[in-house]
Amino acid sequence: MYFAILLDRASAGPMIIACSEGGTSIEDLAESHPEKIIKMKVDVNRGLTTDQALELARGLKVSGSADDAAAQLKALYAVFEKSDCTMLEVNPLAETDEKLLIAADAKLNFDDNAEYRQRELFALRDHSQEDPREVAAGKFDLNYIGLDGNIGCMVNGAGLAMATMDIISLHGASPANFLDVGGNASEEQVVEAFKILTADVKVKALLVNIFGGIMKCDVIASGIVNAAKQVGIKVPLVVRLEGTNVEAGKEILAESGLNIVSADDLDDAAKKAVAALA
User: Which active-site residues does the annotation give?
Assistant: First the structure.
């Protein structure tokens, strides 16, 4: 059997996915036999009710007591809820000769935002199994995902970061990462961001794209200049600033004495970053 609890964006709450056939790829099964997949929304305020759990037990075709199986399914939901899970997947959910349900294999993901109240769980985290760049970024509240391209990106705002990656691709190159420094990055964060970007040997150019709303352009420009001096950037650096105090920010970049290429807009920045690869 297969049993999972996920977070469903459409209903803004937990969604249970279950199937009487487990131990295989649920994606392949859903494609070949969608009628076998059970989907059940759970009211986050009420939790998994006894009636819902009994319906799931019958749908899973347990051979033992439906009441006992329902109790075990409710216990799994309790784990999902109390541990701040974003996903709980049991595959396969096996049944013993004594008619007990056993999680023969399971995977759980936890909400990073709940670390402050799940300290014991997060203390078990094995950073050796993760990308060291992502671990380093996490220590400074930077949102980083490593990719396979050659232009390192530092942007404030996830949407702007995605747009920056897209336009780099549009102009014939590939982004080396997703890196969102957030709306109020400090100089220390900018320094650490540059360290992470320049540690990637595949990075042949850097593109900084900042929209100064909460973050003022002159402040971020000072951070970029100081960070560039500290890290000793050896690849072309293209910077696009827009927003609050943008002229002051551009002046700081121009007077820094560093080889920083200023761009007027996002398209111009992407073109200059791609050209710098040549």
Answer: 2, 89
